[in-house]
Design a protein that fits this description.
Blueprint: E1 6-10, H1 12-16, H2 23-31, H3 34-37, H4 40-48, H5 53-62, H6 67-87, H7 100-108, E2 119-123, H8 129-133, H9 135-138, E3 141-142, E4 169-170, H10 174-182, E5 190-194, E6 197-202, E7 208-210, H11 216-222, H12 224-239, E8 242-247, H13 254-264, E9 269-275, H14 279-286, H15 292-298, E10 305-308, H16 311-314, H17 325-335
Parallel strand pairs: 1-2, 1-8, 2-5, 3-5, 4-6, 8-9, 9-10
Antiparallel strand pairs: 6-7
Helix pairs in contact: 11-12, 12-13, 13-15
Length: 336
């Protein structure tokens, strides 16, 4: 099935707009967690690698640490994400965040316009903010694990409470996933694809299915659903001309940058980045990275662009808020 012209990719900065922490904030919460404080070795490695929480996480879980120490760190991370979910339960009560209705209207722009197209919202986020507050109204559905709101799930995200252990989802094994992929009726026309897993997922062993730390591509390759997702991401970006809109991604994941650079080097992928970082700082941070200069170069193309925006400037909250000039500009670009 053909893919829509516009594709969306979000990173941690997307939900940071609504109060979720970035990498430094995650490090701080994990560093101060009770489960971590019980083990001096965890405190030491997190302190030594501050604020690089993900590398510390990888070093502990893949290193020669006692099982109970590894379990303590996993428990601390899960507790931190649970608290983040709790903090994001009632975003509409805050005045310093973007209008959720407005952001939903942005995401709806990526829906297929005809019945013979498929659209994709790719994300590196692992929280369930979109599932709780956007998915239903944007007519989004997860891919390969059934449907959430409006698509076959029990509606657990509709509740104004944190998820329970009974509501966590076990990912399909290879044979189950093969059956899903062969059935076109299991494929949403507007798919939400969590490339790095989700806080509410568990693998077949019962462990959390979030991809954190270094060597993410190895973790992805080991999980059938995530492997399919990554192959899909690569295939969609490189199969035909597209416009990729990136919100809140810091371009720090080599395997993601590799795909984007491969796509922009073919005639076809235009790139729009929405970030509050000044463009000169963005390029200064990105250019030295592997494939970074190629991605920077793609922003110079006619149909590409870089918007130094906060989402709350594009979609101001409040009963008297009106559509912004920024939103009019972006919507016009997406529809061209």
């Amino acid at each position: 099935m053909p893919t829509t012209r516009n594709l969306l990719l979000t990173g941690a900065g997307f939900t940071h707009n609504f109060g979720a922490p970035l990498a430094r904030g995650l490090w701080n919460r994990v560093f101060n967690a009770r489960a971590v404080r019980a083990y001096p070795a965890l405190v030491e490695i997190l302190d030594r690698m501050k604020p690089d929480f993900e590398t510390a996480y990888y070093e502990v879980l893949e290193g020669d640490f006692p099982t109970e120490v590894q379990a303590a760190l996993r428990s601390a991370v899960e507790a931190v994400f649970s608290k983040i979910d709790e903090d994001l339960l009632f975003p509409s009560q805050r005045s310093d965040i973007p209008s959720i209705q407005g952001v939903t209207s942005l995401i709806r722009e990526f829906r297929p316009r005809s019945s013979d197209e498929r659209g994709y919202f790719f994300t590196l986020n692992q929280d369930v903010f979109v599932e709780r507050h956007i998915m239903e109204n944007a007519e989004l559905h997860p891919l390969g694990i059934g449907g959430r709101r409006g698509g076959g799930f029990s509606g657990q995200y509709l509740g104004q409470r944190s998820l329970t252990a009974e509501e966590l989802r076990v990912l399909p094994d290879e044979s189950s996933l093969t059956a899903v992929r062969k059935n076109p009726h299991q494929h949403s026309r507007f798919a939400y694809v969590k490339l790095h897993g989700s806080q509410d997922w568990r693998d077949s062993s019962g462990r959390g299915a979030m991809v954190l730390g270094r060597a993410k591509e190895h973790r992805i390759a080991a999980e059938p659903l995530l492997r399919w997702y990554f192959d899909l991401f690569r295939g969609v970006l490189t199969d035909s001309p597209h416009r990729l809109v990136v919100i809140g991604y810091s371009f720090r994941d080599e395997h993601i940058n590799e795909v984007i650079a491969e796509a922009v080097n073919r005639p076809g992928l235009d790139l729009i980045v929405i970030s509050p970082t000044p463009k000169e700082d963005f390029e200064k941070n990105l250019a030295p990275l592997e494939r970074g200069s190629e991605i920077c170069g793609a922003l110079l193309r006619r149909e590409s662009g870089y918007y130094e925006w906060l989402l709350r400037d594009v979609f101001p909250s409040g009963p008297l808020a009106s559509p912004s000039a920024e939103w009019d500009d972006l919507r016009s670009r997406l529809r061209s």
